[in-house]
Request: fold
Amino acid sequence: MWETANPTKIAATRGYGATVDLTSASAAASHELLLDTIERSGRTYVDPFDHPLVMAGQGTVGLELVEDVPDADVVVVPVGGGGLIAGVATAVKGRNPAVRVVGVEPEGAAGLTAALEAGRGVRIDPHTVADGLAPPFAGEHCLAVVQERVDEVVLVSDEEIEGALRFLYARAKLACEPAGAAATAALLAGKFRVGSGETVVSVVSGGNADPKIASGILASADES
Reply:
């Protein structure tokens, strides 16, 4: 991990028994250190998003979604490395190809958008309050699935994410992290078309919020 990583996630990782190296200055540098460590030690790398089995596992969210909301017309998914949306899109489209799948990235971490424009993975330097959506690139396997099965990818600002976090806390009583609020942010901000009478499902994924950041976002509602 990197030196400014979410303290809650660092503590949780250590809590599961891992040794955490925080010497890297950024997510990109942390990934390079990871690859170097694997090469030197011979350890096995389990990719957090860019692996077919990981995408399949995340696709169970899509299976549950279509079981709970069989009449869904639009499914909105937050995007980091692309594993979640690749899995969800595969599951949802497999049940009903007519469902529109919309991905949502932070403006400051638009790795998938850059990859779609370039036709390949592109390294970025992410800066966003939604640290759960800020890997230094989108996965190559993920990109291939997104190109085939995702209808649209839109961007939201950190301010829109923060507004959605407050909305979800107040209206849905969901204590999500900023990354989990991104899809709802796009919906609230009107970043994509929703037809009259369409049923929209917003995926809220991520609850490892840094208490200081979350409390600051919630408190700012009183100032706006």
Summary: The chain has ten helices and four strands. The two ends are 34 Å apart (CA to CA). The longest strand covers residues 100-106.
